[in-house]
Structures are given as C-alpha cells and as structure tokens.
Design a protein that fits this description.
Blueprint: H1 18-52, H2 88-102, E1 121-122, H3 127-130, E2 150-159, E3 165-166, E4 174-175, E5 178-179, E6 188-199, E7 205-216, E8 227-232, H4 239-243, H5 247-251, E9 270-273, E10 278-281, H6 293-305, H7 322-326, H8 337-349, H9 361-372, E11 383-384, E12 399-400, E13 408-410, E14 428-430, H10 440-444, H11 458-463, H12 470-477, H13 481-493
Antiparallel strand pairs: 1-5, 2-3, 2-4, 2-8, 6-7, 9-10, 11-12, 13-14
Helix pairs in contact: 2-8, 6-8, 9-13
Length: 494
C-alpha cells in the first residue's frame, strides 16, 4: 500500500514501515495526553496550594498557650490551675497561697491574727473579690455604690519623688470607697453611660457605651478637678511567665518613634522598684506601672485592702485622715514576708488554659485575618521565657503565646484616661495579653473588657481601639460579617 499524499514524492507508509510509524504516532498521542493531564493537575494543584497558602492551617503546638506548662483543665475553674510539674513542696505552698488569695481579711483587733489588719479604708476584703476565680472583675454599673473588682485611681498634675503619679492631698492615689471601725470612706463613684452608634461597611449597625464617671460624697475636700483612671481587675493567669521574661526580649519590640514607619510605636515604661530602689522596666498593670510580680502583689495588698508589707510598710492613710492613722493595726507588717512569699508562689504558678477549637477552619481563617489586620503588631504571639528566673526555675525556657508585647501604645483619645503614670501618657496603655480571653465568660459569667469594663464583648473592645490601632480597627469594620465572625472565633479560641 502506498499513499497518494506524499512529500517530495516519498512514500510515508509501506508494508514494511507502517508499524514504526504507528508506534511513533501512538507515543506522540500519549505524550500529548500526559502533558494535558499535567496542565490540568497543575492548575488543580495551584488552586489547592493557593488555599493552603492562605495561612489557614494549624501550626504545631499553637494550642499550648503556656507551652509545656499549659493546663488542659477547662470549665469554671480553668484559671486557678497550677502549672504542671510543680515540686511537691512548692505544690503544697501553692494551695497555701490559694487560701490567702481567697480569704477575707478583717479589721484589727481580731481573734484570727493571721488575717486581721483590713483597712481601715479599702476597696476589697480579699484578692479574689477583684479577681473572682482568678479572673476578671466587674465594672461599675449605673445605680451601684461599688462593684467587685472596680476601683478609681486618682492623682494631681506632676509627679511624686519616684517619678510616678502625684498623690492627691488628703486622699493619696487610689480612692477608698469603703471603711470599717466607724471610719468614713473617702468618696463614692457614680457612673452613667452615653450610647455611641456606628455602622460596619456592610451596613450592620452597632452600639458602644461610653462611661461618664462622677465622684461624689467626698469626705476630705473636693475631688472634682483631680486626674482619674477607672480600673477593673484583670485575670491573673500566667503572671509568673510574664515575670520570667527577659528585659531584653520585651525591649526588642520597642519602637518609640516609629522608625520603621508602620504606625506602631511600642514604648517601655520605667517605674520605681521599692526593693532595689531604682527605676526598672514596668511589665504589670494596665499601664505597666509595676516592675515585678512581687511588688504588684504587695501594692494590691496596700492599695486595695489597706494591708502593709515589708515593701509598703506604711498605712494607706493620707493626712489628715487621723481616725484612719490611729486605728489599730494587724502587726508590722500585717502581711508577713512568709505570707507574701506563699502568695507569690501561688500567683506565679497559675497556668494558662489550653486553646479550644484551634483546628476549626473558621478559627484558622480568623487567625489569618488577625495577622492581615496587623493585630499582632501589638499582640505579639510568641515569647520564650528567660533561663534565669530564680524564683521558680520551672518557668525558665518556656515557649509561651501571650499575644502581648507588654509595651505601652497610644490607644487614642476615646480610651484615654488623661492621667500619666511614670512614662505612660494619658493616651497610653499596656497591650493586654489575650491568652484565656475566650474563657472569661465561662469562668466569670460575663464578657466585660478593657480597663474599665466598658466593652461588653470582644467586638466592642475592638471597636474602641484608636490611636496606633485605628487602622486595624477600620480594617475590621470593612470586613464582611462572616469574616468578622471568623476573627472573633479565633480570639475566643485563645
């Protein structure tokens, strides 16, 4: 057989040569098919790769907020669990400290000398009154005389001898709204709320409540012109791990003058250490105004309950409150070094609960949004504790995920208290750790957030952000409803 269709009159298929040509043609077709399949597969793979590249993937260990020291116990007692692995003796002292944390102090003299010395003016009778179940306190609400966990800081313009807030004449730096032994309280705080309405890009509306505070019933002179700062007690989980962070690692994230131009200018506060008698990096409190956990605990004893320690040995009784000064005390100091140390063991050994739903796709998508919105510019995800935390070596070299840089940031005029605190201006606040935030509702039966509890949930807290966080807040407002839900799901998983 010959072909009539030739090129250069050469036969293309003969009886002897048809099979090689068939084989060649078949191989060509197979090759083309393979190429086509490769292209199709490549396209499909690219789509899947793009999906994975969205960063919506589980990262090994991300659920372990306190690394190897994370507690897996959840529920109503999730915040009062010790870190795993406490030595037997330390474990026993942990529960002694827990008892001290929960006990109600009474006025002197009393038959129970181990817990007398309360007041004579004070805000709370126990540590747990402000930190119920080691969680968050409640904000002041309208028509309430006081609240479990709320207090009002006060000061005058200027600074004290250590560079901190200047005490108000006759009152000091913290308003005492309760008294015992027939000694009068200093004053009361009233609150009303102004409703602020807003709207997301998709048209959904929201409401924020702006608190307006009024000081009334002043007992020792007018307080109408003083600087004020309302505060709500924070959850106290993971404090030892924060105490164990190196100064260098915290300072590594400072950028006070925004040299990189990203709009974020983390700033360190330097405050007075009453044990070393020098200025040191602040890392605790709403304005990073305490340098160590021990001083934070001692200051709460003195300021909140009127109890003296070796760190703060003087009664919290500003002149001319003579009745307060002359009232009987519970010893010198009222909280012994042994008791203070036991409470330190307790406070430093509280663990952080494991995250929930961390592999849920909506949560993982929310994690990506958290990063896309630049929330992690201040809420730093990961630290590693130092290798020289002598108080409890168990807390050394632990990878933690606090979601905080522990630095000061300008949060805008809407959140400002206009009260300086050492180097912190009236607009600046410490970035709050987000670990455990999703457990507050179960532990404390509420979701009030921010320094004075004005935000009724996480979304409202986001919407109050301003200053350095203004751009991130606006990005959040531009998200779709589903995207907002995913972001909130992620934060609630922390």
């Amino acid at each position: 057989m010959t072909s009539n269709y030739t090129s250069n009159s050469q036969p293309v298929c003969t009886k002897a040569g048809w099979f090689p040509l068939f084989l060649k043609t078949t191989m060509t077709c197979l090759l083309s098919l393979c190429i086509a399949l490769f292209i199709i597969t490549a396209c499909s793979s690219k789509e899947e790769t793009d999906y994975i590249a969205l960063d919506t993937v589980y990262e090994i260990g991300e659920e372990m907020s306190a690394g190897r020291l994370t507690t897996s116990i959840l529920g109503a007692n999730a915040f009062d669990q010790p870190v795993p692995g406490l030595p037997t003796n330390t474990d026993l002292l942990f529960f002694v400290g827990n008892s001290l944390f929960r006990q109600n102090w009474v006025s002197s003299p009393a038959s129970t000398t181990a817990r007398d010395g309360l007041g004579p003016t004070f805000n709370a009778r126990a540590c747990s009154a402000c930190h119920n179940k080691d969680g968050r306190g409640l904000p002041l609400e309208q028509n309430q005389e006081f609240s479990a966990g709320f207090l009002m800081r006060i000061s005058e313009s200027g600074t004290n001898d250590f560079g901190g807030p200047k005490p108000v004449a006759n009152y000091g730096t913290q308003l005492q709204d309760r008294g015992n032994l027939s000694i009068p309280f200093e004053a009361k705080v009233n609150i009303t709320y102004e409703i602020i309405k807003g709207q997301f890009k998709d048209g959904e509306t929201y409401e924020l409540r702006k608190p307006i505070y009024t000081i009334t019933r002043e007992q020792f002179g007018s307080l109408q012109q003083v600087l004020t700062s309302p505060r709500v007690g924070q959850q106290v989980i993971g404090l030892g791990l924060i105490d164990a962070l190196s100064k260098e690692d915290i300072l590594a994230n400072t950028d006070e003058f925004d040299s990189d131009g990203d709009g974020i200018s983390g700033k360190a506060n330097y405050v007075w250490n009453h044990t070393t008698n020098q200025s040191e990096l602040g890392r605790f409190g709403w304005k990073s105004n305490q340098p160590t956990l021990r001083q934070q605990v001692a200051d709460a004893f003195n300021g909140d309950m009127g109890l003296t320690t070796s760190i703060f040995p003087d009664k919290n009784c500003p002149s001319p409150q003579l009745d307060c000064l002359n009232a009987p005390n519970g010893g010198s100091p009222e909280v012994t070094d042994k008791s203070l140390n036991n409470l330190m063991i307790y406070a430093s050994s509280l663990s952080v609960p494991i995250r929930r739903n961390y592999e849920d796709q909506n949560v993982l998508k929310g994690k990506k949004l958290f990063r896309d919105l630049k929330c992690n510019s201040c809420h730093t995800e990961v630290f590693t504790t130092s290798n020289n935390y002598d108080f409890n070596t168990l807390l050394e070299n632990v990878t933690i995920r606090p979601f905080s840089d522990f630095l000061l940031h300008d949060m805008g005029s809407d959140l400002a208290d206009n009260r300086p605190d050492f180097l912190a201006t009236g607009n600046e606040w410490r970035t709050q750790p987000l670990w455990g935030i999703g457990m507050i509702k179960e532990v404390n039966r509420h979701t009030f957030l921010l320094h004075d509890g004005r935000a009724r949930n996480i979304e409202e807290a986001i919407l109050w952000h301003g200053g350095e966080a203004e751009a991130s807040k606006n990005r959040y407002k531009n998200l779709t409803k589903k995207e907002r839900q995913n972001l909130l799901a992620f934060i609630n998983s922390l």
